[in-house]
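Example complex used in Figure S2.
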Amino acid sequence: MTTGTPTANADGPRLPTAPPRRRPTMKDIAERAGVSPSAVSFALNDRDGVSPATRARIREVAEELGWQPNSAARALSGERSGCIGLVLARPAHTLGVESFFLQLVSGIQEALSAHRTALLFQVVEDLAAECATYRRWWAERRVDGVLVVDPRTHDPRPALLASLALPTVIIGDTRTSTTSETDLEPAETTATADEPSRTSAGATAASVSAPAPLSTIWADDAAAMRSIIDHLYELGHRHIVHIAGLPGLAHTDRRVAALRAEAARLGLDPADVRSVSTDYSDEQGAEATRRLLAAPRPPTAIVYDNDVMAVAGVAVAAGRGVPVPAALSIVAWDDSPLCRVTHPRLTSLVRDTAGFGRLAAQELLSLLDGAPTRRLQAELPHLELRDSTTHAP
Amino acid sequence: MTTGTPTANADGPRLPTAPPRRRPTMKDIAERAGVSPSAVSFALNDRDGVSPATRARIREVAEELGWQPNSAARALSGERSGCIGLVLARPAHTLGVESFFLQLVSGIQEALSAHRTALLFQVVEDLAAECATYRRWWAERRVDGVLVVDPRTHDPRPALLASLALPTVIIGDTRTSTTSETDLEPAETTATADEPSRTSAGATAASVSAPAPLSTIWADDAAAMRSIIDHLYELGHRHIVHIAGLPGLAHTDRRVAALRAEAARLGLDPADVRSVSTDYSDEQGAEATRRLLAAPRPPTAIVYDNDVMAVAGVAVAAGRGVPVPAALSIVAWDDSPLCRVTHPRLTSLVRDTAGFGRLAAQELLSLLDGAPTRRLQAELPHLELRDSTTHAP
DNA sequence: TTGTAAGCGTTATCAA
DNA sequence: TTGATAACGCTTACAA
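Predicted assembly (786 residues):
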């Protein structure tokens, strides 16, 4: 029993009672159950071609032996690797306080854990390194698909991943358009195949048909921006500055465009309602705030594209003796403990980040099972009113 | 073209010019170079048994074809999987603002990327799930080794990992002792083998010898705590409270013990210099601060075990009209943008977290190469004096 | 319904 | 120095 190591006597003592510390294989199960390896494979993979009785017995033996599939063997024989990949391209100094990201990952894992799928995670310095990582993963056959974050307005990644035939889910949206009404869920209708037979049929379809399935999970940044601006408008603010994140990022560009559109709709002066861009860091957030407050006619409200910059902004205002919210209202895009902990507590845009991640991971798993691609809209965020916004002075 | 489906003629058309969209294999290289597959393997793995000329030619062809090793095949044939694992066990709500963690991961990747090793990352709810993850990874042969974070005073993980024979590096230290002088680097002396032949010799040694190699990277929390207390003592503080993190965690316990020891050394009243424990969340940090400030004789200085609680503490003090640092000095353990962004900027204990991660990953890679286990001390943290500490009132 | 055998891309053994 | 050849553990035609 359980012999089978190649060299002469590498298998250690042949104690029938205490099995050696070798992971059991399907062959072990087959011998023990008195069936063929293929029967074991069929039984353990829920494929038919094996009688219920045999299946039950095989399952029992597998359980008893504590068998688990060897991921390398699975991957090698053409199945999936059982891994999906996620690359975070951020310059090291930007990594500081990133509540968004861990939340996202924790949501992703929720979806993955049920499917015995692991997450390969990589932090790199820039987009080029990110692309290199995809190429390497592809060449090494490391991952079955990838989750792409921080989509950009001109993004080389979708094309690259398509050419590599790596199933992809974009978290966020590469499009900049603000006309969200017209193109709401165009592909949503195609999402009819609920459970496309899940096994070889699906896998084959996925690998043979399209260059690479690519789905998108998108958040309606335009609607979110409108809700913020409308809130401030109702409070009487007419001079609002949006301290935006990195210009190349699609969601930044969408928010900037949405701000402009909403200002136009409300008849506000484009010179008084505008965006300035930063790199998301607290330093640049503080610096931008400093400049704004030093101007002859400072804004009465500032919208920050993340929580860290908002907190930095509050500190700058405090340092210059500008009371928040009495003289300056502040809104943070993205909630976090930070926003609740500072004084005053920050009005912020709350979204279900973990849910976003869960949705994305589920979509990627569906794609791997051969489901059609689609665009999925995430739950709309809402504005949590706290103590940093009030009537315009 | 781009055939290659596993039916009849799996090798597809033999077009010498335009290679099919199939990942090239060693066999392809062998055919192209007119040698045997094993020669290719030797050449590409820097093993001898192949002439320099052949080696060069093989390398050239491999380059030309853009060959990359198939990780599954490597893993299956007994080599490493080329993955190391990291599990983060945190209740979801604690994930909020974790500057420490992404920094650590980014340091880890720096070390790994040079070795074509990937990081398998998993977020789970608790310790039990973490252990289950290790078991699964072991059974699936997913990882070659693991990095363990958040060591506890009574920690089941080292024993589990030893029984699974998974090479391990503990990031932090499971020991609680504060007598750091006596047991400084006891095994450091054994760390002589610089480059133990790296290939089969090392690998064999690792898998045959010990149940599982386990190294520890430890930070001298006791010395760090002493530096904080001494700083406050010199400023005249005699009533200092340490708002600690989760009690079970080894570093928490070490800091608590170090505080007590240092207080004794300075002849301070144990009732006036003590620790209270929390779960690291901003809520509990704020709540503890509230209680302390409401007491008949509030402390003149508070040391927080992380940045988030420190910021929360500042907000509570501000809310109660307690000026920081005039009436209350505050120190944060762990620096982050947060500490620089709040008003006043927080005096904090700065450590090179990314460096810590890099060190840990390097050590794990050495272990995988058969190097002896050891205890490594990380660089000592230093106290960055900012605006939240001053003379006792 | 079941068993046999080939193949996935490596590494490793052993003759030539 | 080379080149067959057999593992590794699993999936999957194809044959019984």
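The longest strand of chain B covers residues 83-89. Chain B has a mean pLDDT of 83.
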